[in-house]
Every structure is written in structure tokens, then in C-alpha cells.
Amino acid sequence: MNIFKATATAVAAVMAFSTPASAEEFPERPINLVAPFNAGGGTDLLLRAFAPHFAEALGGDAYVSNMAGGSGTVGAAALAGQRPDGYQMGYWSVTVATIQPQIKDVPYDVDSWTPICSVAASPTVLFTNASSPFQTIEDVVAAVQAEPGKYIYGSSGPGAITHLTTVAAFEGLGIIDDMKHLPFQGSGPALQAMAAGTIQFFGDTELLMTRGDFRPLVVFNAERLESFPDVPTAAEVGIAAPLNELYLWGGLFAPAGVEPDVTEKLSTACETAMNSDGFQQFAADTSTVLNYRNAADFDAFFRAQYESNSALIEAAGL
Amino acid sequence: MIEAIPQALSLIFTVEGMFVLTLGTMLGIVLGALPGIGSTVAVAMILPFTLTMTQAPAILLLLAIYAGSVYGGSISAILINTPGTPQSAATCLDGYPMAQRGEAGKALGWATIASVVGGLTSAVVLIFAAPQLAAFALNFGPIETFALILLGLTCIVSVSEGSMIKGLIAGFLGLFLSTVGGDPLTGEARFTFGNFQLIAGFNLLAVVIGVFALSEVLIRASAISDADNKLVKFSGIVLPKLSEWSGRVKGLIKSVLIGNVIGILPGTGAATAAFISYAEARRSAPTRDNFGKGEPDGLIASESANNAVTGGALVPTMALGIPGDAITAVMLATLTLHGVTPGVRLMSENPVLMAAIFSGFFIINLMLLPFGMIVSRLAAPILRIKEAYMLVMISLLCTVGVFFVRGNPFDLLVMALAGIFGFVLRRQGFPMAPLVIGMVLGPTLEISLRQGLIITDGSFAAFFTGHPIAAVLAVIALVMLTLPVIRFYRSKSAKA
Amino acid sequence: MQNLVTERRIVALLILALSAGLVVSTFGLQFAELGGAFSPMFFPRIILMILLALAALNMVIDMMTNVESKELRLAPTLLICAGFVGYVLLIMPLGYFISSVMLALLILITLGIRSPLVLLVLPIASAGSLVVLFNHILKMPLPNSPFFWWI
User: Fold this and answer.
1) How far is Cα of residue B34 from the mean position of the Cα atoms in its chain?
2) What ipTM was predicted for this assembly?
3) How far is the alpha carbon of C97 from chain B, nearest alpha carbon, in Å?
4) Which of A100, A243, B98, C117 could be stapled to B294 by a disulfide with Cβ–Cβ 3.0 to 4.6 Å?
């Protein structure tokens, strides 16, 4: 076992000698951006489009690495224990950062991170098939109350944003106990089941909804959406706070304890990268709703979300 | 669709178009042929390069890598008994025994022709009937899917004749392994025994590469006493003569059909198709008694079906905008990056691009034949190096392959332990193919069963009363299950 | 019936014990009992019960038949098994390159390769070419060492 001992000593020695680089010289080596999902997914592609502009804004190099599994928690858990030197960051969504740590026994929580910047945020929408008889959410409430246990809402998995959207809607309307929940593995199979009529309701972002022949019923936003001026907000149909607003947001997080100077530098670079023509073009092509917050604002937003989402988790029975 | 083809061909027959098709197919075959590197990792390697390309070449490159790597997997499966992907696991069953007999070239010949025929037919089906087939696939709800997976499970019986109990144990172990981790319906952790890493479950590829490739390394290391040992004799593909096809064409057509149908359905994939097709061939082929001992019909069944799936998986992807598997999901995401919205209107809004993808897919499958011959000719000298060197390279490549599947170092530990576990079991005559079948089918089996029970309010009988497709599939599954048993007793009484 | 304890019977017994243990573990009180299809243990319990029955049957068959063990060179096999486990555990702390060179050396030496040239060149060349390809050409980094970020 000498080799193990020798290795451990060597590793410790190197760790001790490498003092954190001062903010002046940062970055001295490539920055690793962790996508907690597989290559080719939405998060991965967003990061890959973001990385070159971010690297340019920092005057360094940046690459994307994938670490998938456990609904994003495996990647987040691995980063949570790393050194807070600013060379490793992850792009976490609302579920990875605020939902999963409250429903699973994961080795990270609200205090594990230095939030750097928020990048995207889209309100979610509850929708049904375009061919369904339900024109408004009132029709849905009436139908569910007339035949309890008949209607089924789908999700892309327990604790996913799709699940929380439907829970927020039906819990907020007080009919969730008269409906059935059918989880699928991912949005693809769920949307296929929707097209086939196996499930009647599904909730996701506007972008996803416009891909199929679907009819929006409620939007979980503070105001009505420009693209659907006739669709009421959740508050308008009587869904009370905190269930009335739900956003699929995501941003960069570094392990807790990053030097304020470095955080500042990263956060500013993030803003520059988001305003670059290349990234704006990406957002336009993929209908990504950009939403920049600096480190301090994002920290406050993240903590508030962590709190308010616990009500949703309770309602979902997770 | 057909009207748009001339315009689509003008997109393909450009310098850039032909370049990506040629390079992509070649690279796909090479990557697929490397032990441990499968389609998923091959696509992840190429993805960053496609981001800077225009729409059609980007998608064609991904498609070429995909189809090429599915075919390439058969090369390492046949020559060194190490499938890089679950879908080539069935190819080992007859491919490697043929190679051991000194017929490696012939085995690859059969596999190549079967792959090309499977891929080409699925391309034709795609061009002419994608919307109709996608509509048909909507008939498959959770209950129908459950019955189909049940049918798939009967393959465990047919690939483990001779050691039935041990095959079944391996199969059920595979099913169990697939349940470890977060419950797909409630999210609760199962069998993790407090270990957070296990919440993501056992990765299928890590286990497959462990039990096939690493355990193969151990088996060879445990037996060779002569370090100068050489691997199988191989000097290039030998295409089967036309006369050798007599009696095999019917099986080929059946396998291609199975591959196409299964590719279209949600929740299944190339591995399921290869195994179902293999099991069906083993049930009905005139040569069934030679299966598992190096019978070309077995190779034809698995290789034509798994390549037909690549086209089938494109049907829901293109017609509904719903990805058929992990690779087609990457293609759809790449489309969005180029400003194309995947979804139900994908084909009607982008007819030329879709026609280019379909025709490109046809051309890729044509290229498999010459490129397959070139790549395996190039691989021949590698097989002449000392076995010890080869074992080193297999081990290092498998590690790379497993690492890049999810980027999770825990998967490497799973691979190493699966290798040792697989080695111990293989020495005692446990076949490993059933374990892979169990792990591949397990998640879909469980989810569809439990979804079905939620829909029917807990009534299992209701699965078959209101669902004719499910009832028919269940009856076929029952026949497949009892037939080998009857045959076994009949042959016993004939001998007595 | 010359030898009661054979490798095959030990493996059969281990599988039996493993399945029994797993079946027992499904009856722990760790889940809120939602009943039927909603219970996370619904499906695994069915699978494990069948597995247990099969394992018991297998045990009986292996006790009744006597199968000669296959040839096994114990020392190299155990060394390479331990090598694999050590290798995957060292990849993260030491990086892919260093740990791969060590594994390659172990496999070559265990299998009787003694040529110093091969032992020097083959491990470095094979691990090095993969590191160059992935870390530097494709920018898909394999785990790197704590000493130098480029390998």
C-alpha cells in the first residue's frame, strides 16, 4: 500500500503549494464549465454556445465538460466539494439548484454555492392538446370535478419542472386529488403520450409548447405573455402565491467561498458574454429567454427561490 | 417528401456535403470498431465540430457518425468478442465463434451485407412512409409497450439454451441492476444503501463494457501461458457468394421488418431490436440448432435489425419532433441551434432539409460496404500484435469510453467491478447476453408496467381486455416462452 | 463426489445469499407505503423473488452435478483484478495519464512481457496518444493530474 501513501502525500504537497491566484492574474489556466446533463442536450448546447464568448470576455480559455446522471445532481454534487478558485463552475437549472437538494439526500444545499450570474429564465405554461374539448382552465376544473379520477397529467419525471408546473396549477386550483399523475422518462415520451391521448395535460416552457399542436391554458408569469395575450396568468385564475409564478431559470454557480474579486470578474465577464452578438444570435435561434442578474442579485434570487419552491415540493408530495 | 428530393440532392452533392458524408461514415466506423467507444461517445466527440457548420452538413455528419458507429460495433464484436455497445452484444453470440473457427472474414462479410440491407431498407421506409408510421406509433401507449417488452424478455430464454437456469439468473440480475437508483416514478432512492453515487443508477454502458470487454481481458489473462499468443486470424472481409444466400433471405427480410418496427416505437432501441430479431431467428430459422456456435443466420438477424433501427428511430424524430433515442435527441437539439424548430411541423416547414437528411441517410448506408471493407482491412494488422498489447489497449480505451458516457468517475468503478463480476460468472457458464437484455429492457418494463397500472387503477387484467395489440403481443410472448421448453422435452423423448 | 467445495458451488452459494439479502432489504421500512404500483419496491420485489427462486434452483443443480473447474492462473488474474480496481480509484486523484501508464505496466509485466523497450514505449505511447487526442485536440478533457494540468 506504499504507493497509495506516496500518492496521498504527493497530492497534499501540491495542494499546499498552489496558493489561490490573485484576481489580477485570473484566469491563468482554462476554466471548466460543467453541464450536469449529457452532450447534445439543451443545457449542454447553451453552455457550448456561451463558452467561447465567456472565454473572450475573461481573456482566457474555457471548455465545457459533461457530468450527467441523477437529474443533474451527480454533476452538482461533484462540483460542490471542489476548491472555490473560480476555475470550475456549473450551469444549474432551478431544479438542480433548488428542487433536487430538498427532495433527495444529495451532498449539497443552498449554502454550497457562490452564485455567479443568472443566464436564462422562461415562464412555464400549462397546456393541453389542440384537439381537446378544453378551451379554458375553467372547463378543466368543471370536467375534473364532474369525473374525479378520470383525467391524467403527465410529467418528464418526478421533481422536474414539468411536474412542478402541473402541480402548481392543479394544487392552486384545488383539484389535484381528483387527478392522476403519470411520470415519463423525459419530455419526448410524455409529449408522444399527449399526442396519443394517454395524458391530457402537460406543463413546460413556451418554447417546448410551440413545437406541437397544443393549446395553452395558464401561464405562470407575473404578466400575460406577448405571444399569447388571451391566455390568463395563474394569479388571474385564482392560483395563490407562491404557486402563481414558476420559471425555468438557470445560471452559473461556483463552489461556495470564491474570492469576491474573482466572483466580480466572472460575473462581469458573464454579462459581456451574454451581450455578445454571437450569444444573442444563439438565444434568438433557440428562443431562449435571457435574463442576466449579477452575483449579488442572483444570490438573493436563488435563496428566495429555494424558500418558495419548498411549498411546491410539499404540494407535489415529493 | 419525394418532390423535395431533387432539391435535397443538390444540397448533398456539394463538396462540403460529400466531404462530411465520407468523413463521417469512415470516422463512425472506426470509432464504433474501437472497443469501449460506442455511438454515444462518438457523437459527443463530433458534436462540437458540427456547431460551426450549416444546417444540412451538421445533421448529415451526426447521422453518418451514428450509422457508421452502429455498424462499426460489429467489427470489434466479431474479431475480439468485445461489443462497444449493447446493440452489438447479440452479434458476438455467433460472430465470435465464427472468428474462432478462422472464418472472421466471412463473419464480417455477412454482418456487413446484413447491416447495409437493414440500413437501406429503413432509409426507403423513412422516405416513403414516415408520417404514416409515426401515426401508427401513437397506438403504442404504456400497456402496449409493456407487452412488447415482455416479448423482448423472452429472448433471455432463447439466448441461454443449454444453460437455461444460469441464463435466467443473469437476465433477472440485469433486471434488478436496472432498478438501482432513483425510482423513475417517485424519485425515491432504491438499493443505494446510503451511497449518493448510486442514486444515478448503474450505467448500462459501464456494465456492458465491464461484463463483456474487461471480463474478456481477465479471461484471456487467466488462461494464457504464452505471452506471444495471437488473436483470431483475419485478413479482410470475405463477402458471401450469392449461392450462400439461399435459405437465408427470408430471415433477413423478417429481421429488417423487426428492426424497422421497433425503431419507430418509443422506449425501445437498437439493442432491443437486435435481441428480438435474434430470438425470432433462433425460433424459426432452419439452422436454429447451430445458433450460438457460429451460425451466419444469427449474425444476419442481429446486424440487419440493429441497423434498421437507425432509420426507424428517425421516424418519430422527423415526423413528430420527438426523439427516438439518445442520438436522435442530439440531432434535434442541433437543429434548434441552427434555427430549425423541431416539432410536428418540422417536415412541412423544412421539406428540403428533411429530404436531404433522408437521402443522406440512404447514401451513408451505401457507403458502409466499401468503407467497412477498408476499415477492417486496416484493422487486420492490429490483430496480429501480441495479445498482451491488445489487452492493454482494450483496457485503456474502455476506460475512456465509459468515462465520456456521462463524465462520471463512479461509472469507472462500476465498469471495473462489473468486469470482475462478469469474469467470475462467465467462468461458471453464466451467459452475459441475458444480463444485458435485462438491463436494457428493465427500465422500460418497469415504467410501462407501473404506468399501465396507474391508468387501469391497478387492474392487471385490464391490460389485455381493452388493448388488442397488447393481447396479441402477450400471446406471442407466451408462445416464444413455451416453445423452447416443448422442443427440449421432445428432443429428450426422441433420444430416450 | 470427490470434492464438495468447488468454485462453481461457491459462486452458486454467493448468488443465493446475495438474492436472499436483497429480498430481505426490500422489506425495510424505508418507504412511505403508497401501495401497489406507486410503491418504489413493487417492481424490484417481484424481480428479486423470482431471482431468489432461480438461485435456489441453480444451487440444487450445481450440488447434484460435478463440473471440473476451468484452468485458472490465479496470481496474474488476481493481480489484474486488483489493478483494475486500483486504476479506476486512482484516475481522479492522479489523472488519466499517470494511472493508465501504471495499469499498462502492470498488465504487461503480469503477462510476462520483459522487453524494456516495450515496457517503456507502449504504456506512454498508448495513454499519451489518448490524452493528446482528447484533452488537446478535441478539448474533451480526461481527468488531469494534480501536478500538470496538461496531462
Assistant:
1) 15
2) 0.93
3) 10
4) B98
